[in-house]
């Protein structure tokens, strides 16, 4: 139910939305299936929009996009060497045209839109919403984590007119960003997954992060529903901010006894979880394919949104078994080494103090085989500003509390953690991943469970790839849908 119809844009609609005009009048009418701003990923049937920035000019790639099958290009200048048979629409400014397309798409659809933001957990929550709402009707969602001032309008511009729902991820690292994005997409429901110490390089306090995240309420329409984490210490503050924005309904989710959508019981193993929850007065049980308590809590926010939109909660809960972790975001791999088999948890896409704590808890709840150990390979957490040293150092307490056996560290900031670790946990430290890889590979043994996590800029993904791709057998991705895990819960 999530497949797009054939036509998302016609030539007439693009001209009406942007105020542009066809460069070559002889060109016949055409229709397009989507919008692309990247010639490398431009699909057959897309319109290529030639955005420009300080270090690039999309007009240099118009020919490449057209050669790959783009039906047309939106440009602010005519590139040299373009054939008169090509379909070009000339506009004053391509970035403004993207926002105009998004606004046009928003005005023509009756889709109920859910905006998802928060310090961590945005992408998995958005993906879960796409699956859960997709059980009730045609659902459109953000591709990957394209959640910035380009990604959000791009997602909206790709919205099929007859969609019933849309789940749009919104990110920010400065005040004011979410305000304008929320006003553009005009959601009827806004989820804030949690508020944590991230992007402190750009904010003077965690409270100021909460204020910036609350800007997502600015564009709410209809019943104006805010879905907030009842377990988070900023719940009361966000609730107050929501009321100041005129939010009509606040739904709290979590394990807190006062939560409207409340966790009742969980039964877990390494691969997934059987959850029982109270969804606004209705008890529902469902399987999750995503290990970790943080993912359980995220699933509650998803079902809260489904309930708020009066979609089918039973179908949504059942569909969540199909939500799986992607590469770099906690996916588990069974890897064969000369010493035997071990499990790699690839969580190398990003890291913050909050997501590190959640990952340590997930590792704690995972059970090594035989004489295997719980091993963590950790890279720098970026964008923490003046608090960086202290926040890295404090991870030692959480690692020890969660029973992690050995900790490898990489990066300048992680040197603080290395020194703070008890000697029995402290493994090798290196300034760059390439130096650490041989040491990790040599030390691992059969039965180990290895967590690899760091901010994208720390390049811990290279360590994960080195272990996964050098498996002596084809590595298996582990989840509840695998044959060997069929009766896991």
What is the secondary structure topology, with strand pairs?
Blueprint: E1 9-10, H1 11-18, E2 21-22, E3 31-32, E4 34-36, E5 46-49, E6 52-53, E7 56-57, H2 62-67, E8 72-75, E9 88-90, H3 94-108, E10 112-117, H4 122-134, E11 139-141, H5 151-157, E12 165-169, H6 177-185, E13 189-192, H7 206-213, E14 225-229, H8 235-244, E15 249-254, E16 261-268, E17 273-279, E18 282-288, H9 293-308, H10 313-319, E19 331-337, E20 340-347, H11 353-364, E21 374-379, H12 388-393, H13 395-401, E22 406-410, H14 414-420, E23 426-430, H15 433-443, E24 449-453, H16 461-469, E25 476-478
Parallel strand pairs: 4-5, 5-8, 8-9, 10-12, 10-13, 11-12, 13-14, 14-15, 15-16, 20-24, 21-22, 21-24, 22-23
Antiparallel strand pairs: 1-3, 2-9, 6-7, 16-17, 17-18, 19-20, 19-25
Helix pairs in contact: 3-5, 4-9, 4-10, 15-16
In words, what does this structure look like?
There is one protein chain. The chain has 489 residues and is of the alpha/beta class. The chain has three domains: 9-94, MurE/MurF, N-terminal domain (Udp-n-acetylmuramoylalanyl-d-glutamate--2,6- Diaminopimelate Ligase, Chain: A, domain 1, 3-Layer(aba) Sandwich); 109-322, UDP-N-acetylmuramoyl-L-alanine:D-glutamate ligase (3-Layer(aba) Sandwich), CATH 3.40.1190; 331-485, Mur ligase, C-terminal domain (Protein-Tyrosine Phosphatase, Chain A). Helix content is 31%, strand content 23%. It contains 16 helices and 25 strands. Strands 11-12-10-13-14-15-16-17-18 form a nine-stranded mixed beta sheet, with helices on both faces. Strands 23-22-21-24-20-19-25 form a seven-stranded mixed beta sheet, sandwiched between helices. The chain has a five-stranded mixed beta sheet with strand order 2-9-8-5-4. Strand 14, helix 8 and strand 15 form a beta-alpha-beta unit. The chain is globular.
